[in-house]
Each structure stands twice: as C-alpha cells, then as structure tokens.
Inverse folding.
C-alpha cells in the first residue's frame, strides 16, 4: 500500500481509540469532580484543568515534533492518555480531588498532543489535497462515537454515581488509548519526512521565529478562526454533560448527546474537506463560526435529549467547517520545519481560551442558568465570524 495512504489510515485508526478515552473525559469530567469534591460551584474547574493542561503541553509538543519528527511526540501523547485515566480512577477510588485533577490534566495533554495527527496527515498530501488528507484522519473520530452508547452508557444507566462507581469506566478509558499507542508504531516513514517533497510558502530550512510566522498574510485570520471555533466548541461540550443532568436527564443519556456531537464534528468531515476548498477557506471559517453561534443559541429552547443532541450536532458541524478551513490554511503558510510550532501555538491559544470559557461558563451557568450560558457561547462564536467577514483580509498565498 502507498505509504501516505497507509500512514493516514493508521493515524485515523489511532484516533478512533483515542476518542473513546476523550468521550468519557468530556462526558464525565464535571460529574467526576462534583462527585469527588461534593462542591457544585467548581463544576467548570475540571474542564478548565483538562483544557489548560492541553494548552501548555501542545506548544512544546509542536516544537519537539519539528525537531524529532511527528510520531515520537504523538506516541508520547498516547502514553499520557493511558496514564491519565488510571490516575483519575485512583482519585475516584481514594476520593482524592488532587489525583482526579492530575488525571484530567494528563488526559487533556494527551488529547492535544495526539490531535497533532491531523496536521501530520495533512502535510503528507499535495497542497491542493491537504484539506482532504486532514479530513481522512478526522473522519475516524466519528467511529469512536459508538463507544459511548455501546460501552460507557450501559455502565451508568440511570444510577446516581458515587466516586467508587466511576473507577471502572475510567480504567476502561485507559485501555482505549493503549490500543491507539500500539497502532501508532505502524506509521512509517515519519509524516514530516514525506512532507519534505512538497514546496511551501516558506522554503524549508531554518525555521523562522514564531513572531515572524504570525505576521504572514492570512495567518492572523486563520488563527482567530481556529482559536474561536475550538475554544467555543470545547467550552460548551465540556459543560454539556452537567447541563443535561441539570435538565433532569440520566447520566447514561449524556453519552447520546456527546455521541451526536462527535458525529457532527467528524461525520461529514470527508465532505467538509472538499466543501472548504470549493467555498474558499476564509468563507468556510465565517460560515462555520456562524453555524456554531446559531446552534449554541438554540440551547436556550432545546432542553430534551433530542433537542440538546441536535444543537450539539450543529455545534460540531460548524466547528468542523471552520476548524478544518483554518488548520489547512495554517499548514499551507509554513514550511515543514515550522508547522509544528505554528499549529502548536494555535492549539495552545485555543486550549487556553477554551479553559477560560469552560471555567467562566461554569460560573455563568451556576449564576444565570442555561439561557445565560447558551447566549454567551453564541456571542463568542458570532463575534469573530463578524470580525473575519469585515476584516477585508486578503487571501493567503497558496503554495506551489
């Protein structure tokens, strides 16, 4: 099999198993924190720790991938994804908030590092097919949406969960990531080596300083779209489980909502890659952010499992459109020796802002309820869409 195709399929398969761990962390992170600490006012702190840890991990990881190659770094992410659930399970078993927060931090770091697979996949393809290459890997994550209803859902049913009842699901989550690590060893040669055959906006060689890269035409616009779409999406997604419980739904139903959200994020991504190139990347960023805003606003009225699932599906679909467009644009604006640091810097900003939104969203929800949270999230998606639309940014130069 062609090494590019084989590598892309293996990177995709690794994300299938990684998504099993992440789905549990997203769905039950807030529930676990409240169960262990007994304090509802800090429900946004768990997602904030998850996202902040990912933010601080991905910057160094991106730079390391430029120096050592993509796969050693991605495998390190899988190792963190094995250890994180084990530590969280230990925290639940001993009712230790410190261990739970540490475990969630490790899971968050694992998530952002392993997601560098999307850029690794894209750079193996010719410039005009990079959105397609990225979409092949991201599409795999939708397969992981089945893990929640089939594996985790039956573990919970309609029970009110105690910390000790959360131990087994977290242990199972680590097994998913172990499978992803094993698969990653089949990816060769390293995607960075394959990408060197293609030209880029900046000739490969000594990497330019990050400050210089950020000043290139098109980079600020793509970064704003990437940061806004990711931060708003994860901020809402990480609080959705607790909001659902607040509406009176069972813990088991959380996985239906999160699974539909994952389907929205990744289910149409193979088509999204082509749509992005046909619409134009800047236009796709605006449309995606606008769809996210509308979907968040719909949560004001949609309180049922079906309604929340539909809203979270729309949120995921909007993210898919804007984030694939932004990420593909950034990859084309950097050489192979610069891409890791540029994507890493974007992911760093995305996760930090997402952490702040999750933490602030918890405060907004506790103080103002569901409507305040939904409308705030809608505004945070629509404002950058309006800025990008009215910025008059010139199209970014495309690589030869």
């Amino acid at each position: 099999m062609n090494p590019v195709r084989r590598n892309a399929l293996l990177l995709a398969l690794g994300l299938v198993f990684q998504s099993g761990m992440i789905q549990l962390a997203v769905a039950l992170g807030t529930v676990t924190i409240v169960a262990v600490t007994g304090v509802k006012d800090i429900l946004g702190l768990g997602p904030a720790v998850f996202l902040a840890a990912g933010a601080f991990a991905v910057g160094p990881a991106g730079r390391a991938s430029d120096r050592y190659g993509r796969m050693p770094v991605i495998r390190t992410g899988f190792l963190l994804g094995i250890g994180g659930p084990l530590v969280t399970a230990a925290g639940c078993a001993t009712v230790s908030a410190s261990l739970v927060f540490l475990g969630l931090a490790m899971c968050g770091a694992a998530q952002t590092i392993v997601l560098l697979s999307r850029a690794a996949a894209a750079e193996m393809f010719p410039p005009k097919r990079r959105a397609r290459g990225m979409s092949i890997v991201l599409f795999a994550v939708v397969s992981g949406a089945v893990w929640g209803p089939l594996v985790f859902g039956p573990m919970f049913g309609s029970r009110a969960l105690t910390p000790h009842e959360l131990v087994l699901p977290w242990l199972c989550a680590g097994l998913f990531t172990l499978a992803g690590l094993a698969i990653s060893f089949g990816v060769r040669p390293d995607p960075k080596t394959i990408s060197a055959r293609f030209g880029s906006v900046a000739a490969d060689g000594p990497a330019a300083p990050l400050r210089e890269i950020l000043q290139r035409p098109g980079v600020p616009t793509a970064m704003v779209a990437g940061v806004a779409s990711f931060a708003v999406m994860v901020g809402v997604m990480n609080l959705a489980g607790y909001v659902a419980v607040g509406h009176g739904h069972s813990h088991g139903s959380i996985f239906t909502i999160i699974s539909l959200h994952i389907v929205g994020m990744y289910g149409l991504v193979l088509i999204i890659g082509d749509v992005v190139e046909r619409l134009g990347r800047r236009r796709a960023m605006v449309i995606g952010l606008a769809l996210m805003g509308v979907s968040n606003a719909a949560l004001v009225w949609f309180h049922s499992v079906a309604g929340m699932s539909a809203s979270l599906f729309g949120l995921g679909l909007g993210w898919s459109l804007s984030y694939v467009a932004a990420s593909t644009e950034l990859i084309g604006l950097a050489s192979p020796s610069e891409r890791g640091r540029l994507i890493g810097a974007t992911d760093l900003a995305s996760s930090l802002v997402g952490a702040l939104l999750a933490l602030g969203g918890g405060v907004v929800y506790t103080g103002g309820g569901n409507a305040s949270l939904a409308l705030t999230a809608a505004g945070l998606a629509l404002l950058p869409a309006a800025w990008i639309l009215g910025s008059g940014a010139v199209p970014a130069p495309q690589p030869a």
